[in-house]
């Protein structure tokens, strides 16, 4: 049995562009629902609030968490969208990874609600919140690698450190929030380091 046959058995036969379009359409629908669910805990609180000023005063942390989740889901969707724009099919491995990625997207509103339910400094809630983001980001990167190795993407691979810098910084934020939960989701600010580090790590050696 050849190496190609073994790989086909592990990853499955590649699906064509029509199947890819259906996968993307389904994924877009799931993401649209999830990004809407992010704000539902705030809607419930707004309905119970005595006044608008009281609602805004009591839910600053919650609004920040919801806004972060909204931005993260939107950023994940864009990354996933661009990845599949450059693809001309997918195999079984990529399909399974897509399903797992969608599970993280669907769970993120739950993690956001857990964070909103607490004081914003709960180690478990914060860990679930940032950990879900980390898992989703890692899956996207593994998907991109799987597509390229299967010859199903015409996108040039990024330098390894540039490809993983976002996930590395998210992992750092997760460790910091578990060690020092009193600072809450502020540890996500370490992700801003990707702005100066990204172009630096994208430089290819001459």
UniProtKB/TrEMBL annotation:
It is a multi-pass membrane protein. GO terms for molecular function: potassium channel activity; proton channel activity. This is DUF1211 domain-containing protein. Belongs to the TMEM175 family. GO terms for cellular component: membrane. Pfam families: TMEM175. Its main location: membrane. Keywords: Ion channel, Ion transport, Membrane, Potassium, Potassium channel, Potassium transport, Transmembrane, Transmembrane helix, Transport. It is found in: Membrane. The keyword Lipid metabolism does not apply. It catalyses: K(+)(in) = K(+)(out). The chain crosses the membrane at residues 23-43, 55-77, 98-118, 124-142, 163-180. The keyword Signal does not apply.
């Amino acid at each position: 049995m050849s190496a190609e046959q073994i790989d086909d058995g592990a990853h499955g036969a590649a699906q064509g562009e029509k199947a890819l379009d259906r996968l993307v359409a389904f994924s877009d629908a799931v993401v649209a629902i999830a990004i809407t669910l992010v704000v539902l805990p705030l809607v419930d609180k707004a309905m119970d609030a005595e006044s608008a000023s009281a609602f805004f005063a009591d839910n600053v942390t919650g609004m920040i968490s919801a806004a972060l989740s909204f931005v993260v889901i939107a950023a994940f969707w864009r990354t996933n969208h661009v990845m599949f724009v450059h693809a001309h099919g997918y195999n079984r491995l990529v399909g399974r990874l897509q399903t797992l990625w969608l599970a993280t997207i669907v769970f993120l509103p739950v993690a956001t609600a857990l964070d909103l339910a607490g004081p914003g400094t709960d180690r478990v809630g914060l860990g679930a919140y940032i950990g879900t983001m980390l898992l989703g980001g890692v899956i996207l990167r593994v998907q991109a690698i799987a597509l390229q190795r299967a010859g199903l993407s015409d996108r040039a691979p990024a330098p390894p450190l540039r490809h993983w810098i976002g996930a590395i910084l998210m992992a750092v934020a997760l460790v910091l929030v578990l060690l020092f939960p009193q600072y809450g989701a502020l540890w996500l600010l370490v992700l801003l380091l990707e702005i100066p580090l990204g172009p630096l790590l994208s430089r290819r050696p001459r």
